[in-house]
Write a structure and sequence with these properties.
Elements (H helix, E strand, L loop, with lengths): L7 E6 L6 H5 L5 E5 L9 H8 L10 E5 L6 H13 L5 E4 L5 H14 L4 E6 L2 H5 L1 H5 L5 E6 L1 H8 L5 H18 L2 E4 L8 H14 L3 E4 L5 H7 L4 H16 L5 E3 L2 E3 L1 H20 L2
Parallel strand pairs: 1-2, 1-8, 2-3, 3-4, 4-5, 5-6, 6-7, 7-8
Antiparallel strand pairs: 9-10
Helix pairs in contact: 11-12
């Protein structure tokens, strides 16, 4: 599924260089400079000049820049600026993706430029949710997806709440799992309420999300803990995997329950996540 830990994604406005160093030091697994919603129209050019060099850095968390929609003039300017800067690493985050053709087009631009940049996709519209599977399979450059609740809720005419958005969330998770990429849930808008952040993170993990985006550094520790396996989960996973490997016929019983290959694969993912977290810890 992944060779990186992606539990938390911290957004930071692209036109605020005074807080970028703090964002990188906040212990999020992914830091995303935003050129889209967090930046007013009159500051787009300034933000672009600041954010594009951010991709060049390679130390610390995974570095991401969310450009404006590639269907917009500002998005095309963002993409051209990145191509001209020629960063050797980093992720371009595509918002409001509604078709696989958008992803393929950006991928073709990067191919022509000879850049090995990766892509991330934000699914936040009715059309995008409907085409989630084909969008996330559109390019091998895609390393993660994110479910966007605010724009979708507005389009559906519903509240940004669990029940009315459950179907859409599940579609995104299923598409991400099928594409074998990570998937972030939308940030908790009540970011000053740590218990609410924890509850939303727990629900997101139960639905199959691999992580959750955050709006404030104060939420990072809570989200990271929610998406990390507990000691009890690790102990059970070790027992299940060991019992299965010791079984001569591919079947085992642990705590009175039959253990078959699908169960073992799920438990092995827990151990893989444990190992990734340990290897990424400072």
């Amino acid at each position: 599924m992944t060779m990186r830990v992606r539990r938390s994604l911290l957004f930071s406005p692209g036109n605020r260089p005074d807080i970028h160093a703090k964002a990188l030091a906040a212990r999020a697994d992914v830091v995303c400079l935003d050129l889209e919603d967090a930046v007013p129209p009159q500051a787009k050019a300034e933000a672009r000049a600041i954010a594009v060099p951010f991709l060049v850095g390679s130390l610390g968390p995974e570095r991401v820049v969310r450009i404006n929609s590639p269907r917009s003039i500002e998005g095309m300017r963002d993409l051209l600026a990145i191509v001209e800067a020629r960063p050797e690493s980093g992720v371009i985050f595509l918002p409001k993706v509604s078709s696989p053709e958008e992803v393929r087009w950006v991928g073709e631009i990067l191919d022509e430029a000879g850049l090995d940049l990766r892509l991330a996709v934000l699914l936040e519209s009715i059309e995008g949710i409907d085409k989630a599977a084909s969008i996330l399979a559109a390019s091998p450059r895609i390393v993660f997806a994110m479910f966007g609740g605010a724009d979708l809720a507005a389009e559906l005419g519903v509240e940004i709440a669990h029940e009315p958005l459950l179907y859409a969330r599940s579609r995104v998770v299923a598409a991400a799992r099928a594409a074998m990429i990570d998937c972030f849930d939308v940030p908790c808008i009540a970011f000053r309420d740590d218990e609410k952040v924890r509850q939303e993170a727990d629900v997101a993990r139960s639905l199959g999300f691999s992580g959750k985006a955050v709006l404030h550094p104060a939420n990072i520790a809570t989200v990271n803990a929610a998406f990390a396996p507990t000691e009890a989960e690790i102990a059970r996973a070790e027992a299940v995997v060991a019992a299965y490997r010791a079984s001569p016929n591919g079947l085992a019983v642990v705590d009175g329950k039959l253990v078959e290959r699908p169960v073992v694969l799920a438990q092995q993912r827990i151990l893989n996540m444990r190992d990734l977290i340990r290897s990424s810890s400072p």
